[in-house]
């Protein structure tokens, strides 16, 4: 379950800015009168043309023009699908009294992000593995439920039951007031979708984000699933998003810089013309649900290096169109601003001396 960067302690993600130079009025109007001979007019027109051509090939302007065209084309292509609408949200499900609960329950306020990196001893690693393996099994089984006509509320019920049957607690339930046991984000929903009565439609894509709290440790993972007959364009988006996660994990090891993750993910996404969402980030996870380090998936200059024994999530969100977002009045459900599709994948990893171990695997 990702955390919004705008609600965290680090500086806002880097934004590309530009400034354009302009002629001053004094420079334009302080010249002496001149006579306009044919050759003078011709030379002036040539210079004007050269200025216009030079402006057209400005690298920044060209990049922005291409991006705008891509977003407009993709948005038009995918807006044939009805926009996502809120269904009926049923009451939260009960959890047996004997199941240990995380400390943030009882408050609708989002807990502060812990400033401490979660680095585990051998006992802690064993418990992290158990929590993450459970989360992975639950996610795998939840994915088997994805088909047309199934509601996200049904998925929530199944996930809830699987988690409590294992003696664990569904971490999202009650976190900052979140009313359900899993996040289900469909089509243009970037993340944090609340399960409701909406039925899945043929051709949908849906991210299911599972986090469990077992023996005092959180395991966090998500995956985007295909529902029925999905278009090739959406299949490619989902495939590339998973590849971005894999490439980000591949460079992790003791001593590696966190900023390399965002660079590697951005490079791969850009090959296919996809945008990388900056607002939502990965995070440290363990006995605390969300902690430092915050993992930016876009290019950044955030300092810090990975440490052996540390656990955190990587969870990139890619979009076909705009990476800007809007959040519904429920303060959770976040959609792409232009209605274009988005996909996300997430793993919890453990940093080792020579690489990274993916903990959220069955």
From TrEMBL:
Residues where a divalent metal cation 1 binds: 209, 220, 346
Organism the protein comes from: Salix purpurea (Purple osier willow)
Region (Disordered) location: 73-102
Function according to Swiss-Prot or TrEMBL: Cotranslationally removes the N-terminal methionine from nascent proteins. The N-terminal methionine is often cleaved when the second residue in the primary sequence is small and uncharged (Met-Ala-, Cys, Gly, Pro, Ser, Thr, or Val).
Binding site for substrate: 192, 290
Keyword Lipoprotein (UniProt): no
Cofactor(s) the protein needs: Co(2+); Zn(2+); Mn(2+); Fe(2+)
Gene3D superfamilies: Creatinase/methionine aminopeptidase superfamily (3.90.230.10)
Pfam families associated with the record: Peptidase_M24
Alphabetically ordered keywords of this record: Aminopeptidase, Hydrolase, Metal-binding, Protease, Transit peptide
Protein name: Methionine aminopeptidase
